[in-house]
Amino acid sequence: MSAGLPSYHPNIRAVAEGHVTTVVIDKPEAKNACTGDMWVALGATFRDLAHSGTRAIILTGADGEFCAGADLTGGGDGGSVEPPGHILHAMRVLGDVVLAVHDCPVPVVAKVDGVCVGAGLGLALATDMIWCSERARFSAIFARRGLSLDFGTSWLLRQRVGIHRAKEITFTGRVFGASEALTLGMVNAVVPTDQLDVATREIIDAIAAGPPLALSSSKRELDNAGHTSLAQALETEALAQSVNAQTDDMREALMAYAERRPTNFSGK
Fold it and tell me: Do 26 and 9 form a contact (C-beta atoms < 8 A)?
């Protein structure tokens, strides 16, 4: 874990480089499938990053795999979410993890290589954008395990691909590749495997170079637009813009434009 951020689990790493933090699920022997304790650690990490000053986050998995979902074997480390009472309590704990990723005010890009299935698919969909390699493969595998959708997939998948495609993907549990994911609008880009790091870094650096407060507001506006009226969206925009108008970043943008130079946003 990078300086200033606590480490919540040995298989969840967060490494800061400049204004960008990369969060890595690091359990390659299980294709980065997560035990309960790993999910909880991931949520805690994102809650920390929300207020850390980082400007952009990459979420990925180690050694050429994104995430094979939940580690139903426990992974040999004894890690599981076992709050007292009914399994409903454990599922609500996992729900908090989904919200920590999805609602993080910092833009999050998933870098997906290899397998991205089950709860791993939900995790990728909870981010703001997905860049994937040409060998990435996806599945809402729950039905093949005798389960219904979880980890937010019932909401997130429908948001990305529409209800009819979401039902097809869910009911069949089939595995599909990167090109189909792009056609469905589930991912933003598909690149050759050996170019994934560079391509993801290009988009994340572009985000990190932007005005953090304004981008955070825009993220909130877009996320909320699906369940608000136009009048409510306009009011939210007005309030956010009144904040932006008082920032050093807006003044910097105007000065940079007048002086014909690149902007240097401070996040203030």
Answer: no
Measure the CA–CA gap between 142 and 149, rounded to whole angstroms: 6
d(CA 196, CA 113): 8
Q: Which of 104, 98, 123, 109 is nearest to 219 (CA)?
A: 104
Range of the domain at 160: 12-208
| Three-state secondary-structure class, residue 20 | strand
Residue 250 is classified by DSSP as H
CATH at 63: 3.90.226.10
Q: How confident is the model at residue 2 (pLDDT cuts 50, 70, 90)?
A: low
For the sheet with 108-112, list strands across it: 12-17, 20-25, 56-61, 108-112, 129-133, 189-191
Structure tokens at 144: 């093949």
Q: Beta-carbon neighbour count of residue 141 at 10 Å?
A: 20
Q: Is residue 110 part of a domain?
A: yes
Model confidence pLDDT, tens digit, residues 247-259: 999 999 999 999 9
Residue with tokens 């009011």: 235
Alpha-carbon span 23 to 59, nearest angstrom: 5
C-alpha–C-alpha distance, residues 4 and 210, integer Å: 23
Instruction: Give SS3 for 176.
Output: strand
Residue 155's nearest CA partner among 223, 71, 219, 218 is 223
Q: 193-219 pLDDT, tens per residue?
A: 999 999 999 999 999 999 999 999 999
pLDDT of residue 77: 45
Beta bridge partners of 13: 24
Domain count, the chain: 2
Residues 214, 59: Cα–Cα separation, whole Å: 22
Residue 137, classed as helix, strand or coil, is strand
For 104, the 3-state DSSP assignment is coil
pLDDT at 76: 43
